[in-house]
Design goal:
8-stranded mixed beta sheet; globular; 328 residues; 3-stranded mixed beta sheet; FAD/NAD(P)-binding domain; alpha+beta; 7 helices
Amino acid sequence: MAACCCAHLLSLAGLPVTVEPLERPRLPVILLGDQALALVRDIFGQPELFANEPRIRRRVVAWGHGAQSVSVEHSAVVVSEESLLERVAPPLLSEGNPTYEASWKILTARPLPAPAVEHSFGVRLASVRRVLLARGSDPGACWIESLDNGWLFLIPGADHPWEGRSGWLLAIGGDPEALLDQSRVVAAEVGVLGGSGGSFPAYPRIASPLCAPGWVCCGSAAMSFDPICGDGTGHAIREAILAAALIRAVDKGAPVAELLTHYEARLTAGFRRHLAVCRQFYSSGGEGFFWTSEAEAIARGIDWCDSRLGSNARFRYQLRGFELEAVC
């Protein structure tokens, strides 16, 4: 998604762009919140994008040891990553001119360029399982529940592979069957637990450095987020807007060193905000080793961000639309 946004915005500015596709497994389901959806619609000029897709209108949350569930308003569409990319990628993901020598590279997938290294804050993993939802389950709801050794997130599916209504179960920190055995809220919504949809790291990660003359990291090459906040796609889009704006500013003659310093600081500050939200959840989710150890890792991440930001906490540029302008 970050690559598609960058290529589109740079092409609109009249800059030649070549996109090199990299294959990786697609996410089976994405909750695309209203803000992220509005950004996609605005960037690609598709005001009706996903207007008829299934919507989540409430979130049922049981968070904390012995907590009762509460229902809160929520607004998002349920889509698959494949469906999202099909709407925005076909005109972009072409090889372009293979002889074109790019003066800048925007890296949205690993491997990272030297000397960048990845810093991780936590060890938690997420497992994805297909499920058949129980009869009477609310099609406009998703469910989140913390348990002794992890947490569960259940969302109605964007596709319907079985008879009945399907969904996806995300289990963080423990085996899905074991966590479901402890569950009161999510387990009541699961009719049948199906096959595995794979697993992935669910702890926050960030590359450092994030940029240098000639290249910038963006999207999953720059940062990966804990799914607890549900805004990974939105972060990737906002990073892409900033990366494209940086390249456009360089093309207009703005000082490269200042732009790179601004980019590094902006992304690091965004990552710190994500960690601060994560700390609230992991400090209150439970009392066992899983919760205390992961909260400590998040705290280390916040300290790392503070040390990186240092004197760069004041930003030298600001976005106006899709352009970077120097702050007077």
